[in-house]
Structures
1.
Amino acid sequence: MIKHTDISTLGEIGLIERVRQIVDIRVDDATIHERLILGISDDTAVFRPDPGKVMLLTTDSFIEGVHFDLTFTSLRHLGWKAMAANLSDIAAMGGSPRYAVVSLSLPKKVSIEMVDEFYAGAIAACKRYSFLIVGGDMSASMGNIAITVALTGEAKEEQVLYRKTAKPGDLLCVSGHLGASHAGLKVLQREKQRYHDAPDPATFKPNLEQYTLALEKHLMPKPRFDISALLAGRVTTHAAIDISDGLASEVHRICTASGVGAKVYEHNIPLDSVTRNIAIEFSESPTDYALFGGEEYELLFTMEDAEFEKLESLTSDATIIGRITEQSEGIRLVKESGEEEELKAIGWRHF
Amino acid sequence: MIKHTDISTLGEIGLIERVRQIVDIRVDDATIHERLILGISDDTAVFRPDPGKVMLLTTDSFIEGVHFDLTFTSLRHLGWKAMAANLSDIAAMGGSPRYAVVSLSLPKKVSIEMVDEFYAGAIAACKRYSFLIVGGDMSASMGNIAITVALTGEAKEEQVLYRKTAKPGDLLCVSGHLGASHAGLKVLQREKQRYHDAPDPATFKPNLEQYTLALEKHLMPKPRFDISALLAGRVTTHAAIDISDGLASEVHRICTASGVGAKVYEHNIPLDSVTRNIAIEFSESPTDYALFGGEEYELLFTMEDAEFEKLESLTSDATIIGRITEQSEGIRLVKESGEEEELKAIGWRHF
């Protein structure tokens, strides 16, 4: 039985002090500590930027009922994921993460143990990707849980990866496999429904074992610093973006920002077998999961052919999915049949 | 009649583009523009820090039903206030604001016009205090409006104002007048009740004219960069904090962080006549408004007597309210009668 201790037993000051102790950790990158002058304990955090580097700043929110469902998302996963979404933005710019501030808006149902779990997930990300939580805000909520993280990063100015610099003739490439996060979500939603429909919920066992890869991709996505380090380092990359709202939306974003067109070859989109199997179970198209599913956190990038050869010698986890074209040629999807159609900019729709 | 256009007519991408255009402004401080390499248009903002300065980072959230009530708070006021709360933290550290990211979580009832109003208030703060909005996040909400701002600032390292450096014997001082924000809130809550109780709400006129000073303090608080510039510049300040949760809480925070005690003289707490009159109307103590009312955004600071003399020659808007003592003497309130009592650390309670 998990304990449920009301946050009111600690109060706001007690809760902040508890979090201050939780986030007071050591990470591998010593400069993160050397350059931090003051973390949680004053009106703001204070840090020295690395000389000669530019700063990056990003923010992402996770709202209960919109971005997550507590029925099948643990607070620990949420802590990790709220960090991962921001980290992925830093990775997509070719930077390294530095300092984060975390705002939590918590309804009464949230216990101290749940806050601990959230920070356990967040701290796991801090340790894995070498950055620190240096401040935040805690408030009550009359409704849902709302989580907002803002994260700074640093990069060498000449190595920043923009989305506005794709060039006609570039290869269009992605890291990893796509569609798995959406496939994982589909399974979790189905098992939630099965739980609700079960004659005896107490003995209900969700059927999750064979879907581990997709579930992990959905619940604990990994920002691709391994790939972005190559893209911003040994390989010359023209443009990059992280895939948070589905491949189709992100191809459109690169094309719009760069004033170019693109051709995406459906049969080249990398899909793993678990994602394929899940799509088949739901009688849906696995390619649609890749094109229109959100929260992928892989990277989409463009470079010249010769540079991709270099990249291929450094990693086996990058795939060519198409080519950048002139703007006048539009943004096209080439189907397996050889037919071409417009690639629609449909992604996760908030409004 | 105010137009109400559903956000779904624009969609998320349309809404972000609209906001990008709204926040694309010029501010007086040219370095803000020179050092910004990229605002809203990529995965993160990119900027160069000022050489030799330290960076500050802070965040604050505003949750509907907790921090604000749309019955009497306009979205324009909210836009200003969400910025002001963060700006006040930067001011309390002796810094200057630089770049902000804004996360909005919006339920269906929020129209495009309301988003425009929010940003009109936020942009007014950008222009007034010379900083830029360079990114953010937009999402739907199943419940309340949630607003989170994260703001960076910069300061000379040797001029940063901490709360941990108060020394026994220091004067304890505040900027401006206290209690007005809470007094303004009391009036707004009363007029809301009168509106609900009115036999004919359509012809109801709220009674607000004589309370303008307090209402403005509550709805459009001004971060005290005028005072913090002196504290971090021509005067040697030992410790500083902004008063966001009531004077009593903030005195405790300075004392705890510095390992000191304090004596606060009740009759020296600066109160304006509007606040006094409102407290009298409610048969409450105006000192209690100052000690325990939130969202004041004045500064609380400590310095030696000789430095206060210097400060007094530069501004008439600073008041001595007490003295820092040894920790063993406790944190005490000296009443007008001469009696002493413990100063309780009661402020705004979230949990």
Note: Chain A has a mean pLDDT of 94.
2.
Amino acid sequence: MIVLGVDPGTATTGYGVVARGRDGAVSLLECGVIRTTPRSDLARRVAEIYEGIEEVLTRRTPEIVAVEGIFYSRNARTAMVLGHARGAVLLAAAQRELPVAEYSPAEVKHAIVGSGRATKEQIQFMVQRLLRLKAPPQPADAADAVAIALCHCYALAAARLATLAQNDRVGAAARHRPAAAGGAA
Amino acid sequence: MIVLGVDPGTATTGYGVVARGRDGAVSLLECGVIRTTPRSDLARRVAEIYEGIEEVLTRRTPEIVAVEGIFYSRNARTAMVLGHARGAVLLAAAQRELPVAEYSPAEVKHAIVGSGRATKEQIQFMVQRLLRLKAPPQPADAADAVAIALCHCYALAAARLATLAQNDRVGAAARHRPAAAGGAA
């Protein structure tokens, strides 16, 4: 399972590609940033973000794209400009029919550090540790993108555990039910 | 000169294609709306907007794309969602290396009606009149897109007039300048 995490921005878009093995082990395949040309207009920047994400999708063929959801409030102008960058990422995913998973900043922090209020340094420290890296991914936007990809891996693992636990309860209930009462599956 | 005006929205994106002749006369080539699939996710919708604009660009080969600028304030969430739709339009333009012109709602109203505070009905009435149509373009999002395209045509005409007036003043000044004082262009 290969997951592309993206932290969109009109100046710098971070990306991180993480692989999750059948045993649940995660490893970093690649991370970096797409820097758009300073002083170029927004349309050109959006195109550069789209092309950059396209290249990563071609190179790594992830099965899913994870991005930060539309949750936090900023001023409307900043939010709209950011929406352009995010739109370019979603478009690239949709054109390859890749599902998009969205996580709030608090969900990402909770998944990586165990607290929705973790600092940027705590996130970087845990990303480095979880992926057994010699140093935290640089720059910070790349680390954030890796954190989003990891969040998706852990959300998947949690969902799988919940399903197993559910099946286990159902199985236990079936074992304890008297044979004569059977029939309703 | 063919101008594509676009009024982006995640549910409905209006577009209007206007031709401006050498004599300054404007005519409507086509207008309509791109409606995205209800209940589909934002990534899919962004892709539908992009594909719709792509089709119009292929069919009408405009020289420029005019859109509403990022000027007005809404709540941040609405603004960010709208940014996705706008990003899809800008991307389609940038990929064909088409210039993008941006106008504020007040500029559009002022160009079409002569007042920055015109109502939607006044805009529709003037769009119909300026383009000699039997009825105002429908639906309203298409009419808005046509108004943005017309605004660009008139902004161009105004800029040309200003240049002519400027040249005229320069010419008049040159004619009045004593021949002995010449030399500094």
Note: The first strand of chain A starts at residue 2 and ends at 7.
